[in-house]
Write a structure and sequence with these properties.
heterodimer; A: 864 residues; alpha+beta; Methylamine Dehydrogenase, Chain H; five-stranded mixed beta sheet; B: six-stranded mixed beta sheet
């Protein structure tokens, strides 16, 4: 396969070159801008103006206009021409001598300075080192000497700067900066004429085959190598590109980046410098000259001159892409980077990458395609639009023009193969996910998210819910029918909710739970609805669906009310309770939630809950005995509430439980709440006959009331045990146990008064020991406390004396500090600090103090 | 080959040399493309840019034909490693290495690393025929052996003309003739390989071993080329020296 990289366009026809009679052939050509110089074998120098034209069809043509022709003053035609446009001079190598000709008049310019004779070849330095714009640097090979002359050409003279000795007589050369690349008879070499350092390149027999030495860029040369190779070598003698393979009979070569063009007897071949492949072959007979002039490649047969016009880069790339040669197209694009302006290159590069991606996508090479899409910054919608119906109807997207690919849609791409379609969809899912994560989806999130939603729904993908639950821009109008089509009602509900349409969402879900619709992807939807309602701020909706939920399952349904966040509660608890009257079980759960979990301190709720518990217990009691476990747990709950809460109405409950002979503990607790401890203990001791319960009662009832109350309760209990009037007589064993176990609570003196005389000491040994020890302990601690108090008192006394200072000496000569009179009698008062003053002065001063004055004033104001 | 990689500048250069038809291109192809295919005789040369970790290594495949012999020293110029390849079934190919190709390596770097590779080992050694030969062989019975391979595994189809010892000896002669220091050059055992491009035997080992050996010089060239930081300590030393020079 080949690329069409160049087009052969005729420039100068045979008729324009020769007069009718003469049969002249083209010898050499030079092109400088629009000026074309041709020297023919009859020693005539022709000057043409070469104008590029583009026809309506986009083809390139050249219109050539002959300006002048002039017979050279020589017997031989020119061997080489070189224009020095800055000087308006044409350097002509003719008959082994270099002369200068005016570019416009073609008149020979008499040149001063050195005469260069015996010249076999010369080369102009295209990377000059002198820095003088009005001279041209040249390297000249003379036939007689093994040397190269470095010279400069000025407007009117040629100046030799240096003679560089070479090992042998060069036959061709090229020049770049200080480097000379020379073809010697048996080898090529590179010579730095400034330092004299030389580097042999490789052997080549210049007698057998004409050597080719071409400068192709900064410090890089193209050389004809044995076996018809085109070798690249840089100034250090290193090959940085792999060689291109020409034919053995290559005559000339030229470079037009990124191509190397070579001419042999029958063909012009075009190789790429980027991958060394042969790209194009043009048939061309009697080829004679092939040269590039500032990017323009000219080709001459003996009879005519042609221009090799490179096809526009984009055309070449598109040709490659059309034949699906993705890598080559990209190599060509990237290779052209330095030849096109940066922004233009970036645009082109992106587009080619995108196109390449689509070609690979079409071949299902997804990883390569993805990489190219990414690097080409593809508009994701281009890819989405391949999949029918994925883009929302509201999307403003239109495909890029000209199109990036040839596919109408996915089915065309996959040619109806469902497996291929499936793989493409799988790829798109992955691609869109990454696009969402990155910045590629910015600006058209709606399109991307909606497309992803549709793909998920279609594939039954679990990530659908993740997508909907997270922040997304799925379009409701477009997604809803799609989700319905794929029975993803749960997801649809979430989408409705995300769009603020909770009512629609709930309606949908309720239909799924009721079995009207079927969504196999969601299992515990009822619980979800309940949770949803418990978070729902719209109370109308809550009330609307609460009934449905409670009818379905009271225990779960009530969570609508119990799971609501307390911080922003909008529901009134009373309303809920009224509402729940119908649903007994739910009401109980709700009240438990209020009282036990949220610890709402309202008598109403506590009483209500207690009554409900009591009713439950009573209800269970009236039923047969198989509910024993239920009864036990119900009673535990009731007792717990009765004990812990102090808000319920005790009398009410007492009235309810009064008749029951079984609920003695409960009744005792209620009596305890009323401070009727005697009654309570009576019930516990004599009716229930449960000593542990009685002791527990004492502990519980006195828990928050201090030691004295506790002692009183225990004495009550002891009294109950010892009461001889009770049926069955006093209960000595229980009393002894109580005393022995709780000796610290009792007042031993009172107890001893109560106890019957007949009881043995051994029986009460632990109690008495405890009591005695407690008494001794109390006595001792009291003594210690007393001693400490005394010590403290003494300490304070001492401090007081210390601060009062020593005795105050009084005499008749001493004056009072306040009135400055002397003391008459020994009575005096001391100011703080021990200064003696008259008693009356001190009283006076006290009266005058601000506090005193203020007090006086209030007194008077009160009176008035 | 990835398009973008071609554009990058290589950090270091490796060259494969050897007589024609010993399998230089196949070796490189096996390593880069992980497959074996019949290759045409290489014209001139070709190169491949291998990305090895953060480094780019250019591997030049040269033409073995006599016609292109002259280009060899150009390819070797600036090379940090040279792989001298022979064919284990051809004594002549080993002789050629010493006679023809060794002189080309004069243009390579002074500290160039040499490797001697005997290719086509699958033709002479059973162990090179399969990449994981032993494990399979032990499990299979003798009978199935006969059924599955028409040629018995231990009788080579082609006579092996070059033994490993010959390659080791050649390597030591090279080191000697190049006056390379024995201490700095890797020992012969490390850089003499018998490979098979056809089965892939030892091919990865060859290239990976060489890359490892090259690593110090890669780092060295990198620091030489791109050193955006200025060493202040060096500068101070220079300053101190200056007055001494002047006086």
């Amino acid at each position: 396969m080949s690329v069409k990289a160049f087009e052969l366009v005729p420039a100068v026809e045979w008729e324009q070159l020769t007069a009718e009679k003469a049969r002249a052939a083209v010898e050499c050509i030079e092109c400088c801008g629009e000026h074309l110089y041709v020297c023919t074998s009859d020693c005539v120098l022709h000057h043409f103006l070469l104008e590029a034209r583009t026809t309506a069809k986009g083809r390139h043509t050249y219109r050539t206009q002959k300006l002048l022709q002039k017979v050279l003053n020589s017997k031989k035609p020119a061997a080489e021409l070189k224009a020095a446009s800055a000087l308006d001079r044409l350097v002509v190598l003719c008959d082994a001598a270099i002369s200068l000709v005016d570019m416009l008049t073609l008149e020979a310019v008499p040149s001063g300075g050195a005469k260069l004779r015996g010249v076999t070849a010369f080369s102009v330095n295209e990377n000059p080192v002198t820095g003088d714009a009005f001279c041209v640097e040249m390297a000249v090979v003379s036939a007689r000497r093994r040397a190269v002359h470095i010279c400069t050409v000025h407007e009117d003279r040629v100046q030799v700067l240096k003679e560089v000795v070479t090992p042998e007589q060069p036959c061709a050369l090229a020049m770049d900066g200080y480097f000379l690349c020379l073809a010697l008879p048996m080898q090529y070499m590179i010579l730095n004429y400034s330092t004299g350092v030389s580097q042999d390149l490789f052997p080549y027999n210049s007698q057998e085959r004409k050597p080719i030495v071409k400068r192709i860029g900064r410090e890089e040369f193209l050389l004809a190598a044995p076996g018809g190779l085109g070798m690249f070598a840089n100034a250090e003698g290193i090959s940085q590109r792999a060689p291109v393979s020409w034919s053995e009979g290559v005559l000339a070569a030229a470079v037009c980046f990124p191509y190397v063009v070579a001419l042999d007897e029958g063909f012009v071949t075009v190789h790429s410098m980027l991958d060394q492949q042969l790209k194009q072959t043009l048939s061309f007979r009697e080829g004679h000259v092939l040269q590039d002039f500032e990017g323009k490649v000219l080709l001459a047969s003996t009879k005519a001159v042609f221009v090799l016009v490179p096809l526009p880069l984009e055309t070449q790339i598109q040709d490659l892409l059309a034949s699906r040669r993705v890598e080559e197209a990209l190599v060509l694009t990237e290779g052209a980077q330095r030849n096109i302006p940066k922004d233009k290159f970036q645009m082109l590069h992106k587009r080619i990458l995108q196109q390449a991606g689509f070609i690979q996508f079409g071949q299902l090479q997804f990883s390569e395609a993805k990489e190219h899409f990414r690097r080409g910054q593809l508009d994701v919608r281009e890819l989405i639009s391949l999949y029918p119906l994925l883009l929302p109807a509201s999307s403003s997207f239109t495909r890029c023009q000209p199109p990036l690919h040839e596919f109408a849609d996915l089915s065309q791409l996959a040619q109806g193969d469902p497996e291929k379609v499936e793989r493409c969809k799988h790829f798109l899912i992955g691609y869109l996910r990454e696009a969402r994560a990155g910045e590629a989806a910015n600006g058209f999130r709606e399109d991307v998210d909606t497309a992803l939603l549709k793909l998920y729904a279609e594939a039954g993908h679990d990530s659908l819910l993740d997508l909907l639950a997270s922040e997304n821009a799925c379009l409701l109008a477009d997604s809803a029918p799609w989700l319905e089509k794929h029975h993803r009602y749960f997801a649809l509900g979430i989408l409705y909710h995300y769009n603020g349409q909770d009512a629609v969402a709930l309606q949908l879900w309720v239909r799924v739970v009721n079995g009207d619709l079927c969504d196999p992807t969601c299992t515990n939807l009822f619980q979800y609805i309940v949770d949803f309602l418990s978070r729902c701020p719209n109370l109308d909706l809550v009330w609307k669906y609460a009934d449905w939920a409670l009818q379905k399952d009271q225990k779960i349904g009530v969570q609508i009310f119990t799971k609501r966040p307390i911080s922003k509660e909008l529901l009134n608890a009373d309303d809920v309770i009224t509402y729940l009257q119908k649903h007994h079980r739910a009401l109980l759960l709700y009240l438990e939630h209020l009282v036990l979990e949220r610890k709402v301190q309202r008598e109403k709720y506590h009483t209500h809950l207690a009554v409900l518990y009591a009713d439950q217990v009573l209800g269970l009691l009236s039923r047969p005995a198989d509910t024993r476990e239920h009864l036990a747990s119900a009673r535990t709950k009731l007792q717990h509430l009765l004990r812990e809460s102090s808000l319920y109405r005790v009398q009410l409950l007492l009235g309810k439980l009064q008749d029951s002979e079984l609920l003695l503990v409960e009744r005792a607790i209620l009596h305890g709440k009323l401070d009727e401890h005697d009654t309570a203990l009576h019930i516990l001791v004599h009716q229930l006959r449960d000593t542990t319960a009685a002791e527990d009662y004492c502990t519980w009832a006195s828990a928050a009331r201090g030691h004295a109350h506790r002692r009183r309760l225990y004495h009550h209990l002891l009294g109950r045990y010892l009461d001889p009037d009770m049926p069955g007589g006093p209960r000595a064993v229980e009393a002894v146990d109580l005393l022995n176990r709780h000796s610290e609570v009792f007042d031993a003196v009172q107890v001893l008064k109560l106890l019957p005389e007949a009881w043995s000491l051994g029986l009460l040994h632990p109690f008495l020991c405890g009591a005695l020890r407690a008494s001794v302990h109390a006595c001792r601690t009291t003594q210690v406390a007393l001693g400490l108090a005394r010590a403290e008192n003494l300490q304070l006394h001492r401090d007081r004396l210390k601060y009062r200072g020593g005795p105050i000496l009084m005499s008749e000569k001493k004056g009072c500090h306040l009135c400055h009179n002397t003391f008459r009698d020994p009575e005096c008062m001391c100011l703080p600090g021990g200064t003696p003053v008259h008693t009356h002065c001190a009283a006076q001063k006290l009266q005058d103090t601000p506090i005193k004055r203020r007090l006086d004033r209030t007194h008077t104001s009160n009176h008035t | 080959m990835h398009a973008q990689r071609k554009m990058r500048k290589p950090d270091i250069k490796m060259v494969i040399l050897g007589d024609m038809n010993v399998g230089k291109t196949s070796l490189l192809h096996r390593y880069t493309e992980r497959s074996f295919k019949d290759t045409l005789s290489t014209v001139g040369g070709a190169f491949f840019l291998k990305q090895w970790g953060p480094y780019n290594i250019s591997i030049w495949d040269t033409a073995g034909r006599e016609q292109f012999h002259g280009l060899g020293s150009m390819y070797c110029r600036g090379a940090a490693a040279v792989i001298l390849t022979y064919d284990v079934t051809s004594w002549q190919s080993l002789v050629q290495l010493e006679e023809r190709f060794l002189s080309l390596t004069d243009s390579a770097n002074g500290d160039c690393i040499f490797a001697i590779v005997g290719n086509k080992a699958d033709l002479t050694d059973a162990c090179a025929r399969d990449v994981a030969p032993k494990a399979v062989r032990l499990e299979e019975g003798d009978e199935s052996d006969h059924l599955e391979c028409p040629t018995p595994p231990h009788t080579p189809t082609v006579h092996k003309q070059v033994m490993r010892e010959d390659a080791l000896a050649l390597y030591n002669r090279i080191i000697h003739s190049k006056v390379l220091e024995k201490r700095t050059s890797p020992p012969a055992e490390d850089v003499c390989f018998e490979t098979s491009a056809k089965t892939g035997y030892n091919v990865d080992t060859l290239f990976e071993t060489l890359f490892e050996l090259l690593l110090p010089s890669i780092i060295c060239t990198q620091t030489q080329v791109e050193s955006p930081t200025v060493c202040l300590e060096d500068y101070e030393e220079m300053k101190k020296k200056k007055p001494v020079c002047c006086t």
